[in-house]
Give the backbone structure.
Amino acid sequence: MTARQAWRRGAVIVAAVFAVAAAACFRKGKGVEPARQPVVLVVNNRGFFDVDVYALSSSGASAARLATVTGFSVARLVVQPNLLQPGGVLQVRLHPIGTLVTWVSPSLQLSDGEHAQLDVYSDANGNLSQSVLYPLTDSTSAPPLR
């Protein structure tokens, strides 16, 4: 083998190594996930107690206070996408003011275009165990954002 042939063979090997290394470093993108829209949460407080409403992110690891909803009133809250759990899951925690009680809702998976309603039921001691969180689709129409 001549020096010229050895040089060509070496150049081909180096080029092949670079091509393999470049292919190994390249990751196919998963695509850009569309930005989620804020979720409207309609809170219908059917009890005497004013309640603090919190959004729980990451399986209850942290809570962000959304609002206080007075007794026997309805409030429309906007939950920003960063306050949802991964996958568009909404979970809330309630605390009736003046009690030691807290209530955590089951996780609610929301699809695009869905909003949520929270019906708050409390007894004389502030027990919220009968409260319900459920999705509202466009057909059940949440109040429009203003």
Summary: The chain has a mean pLDDT of 85.
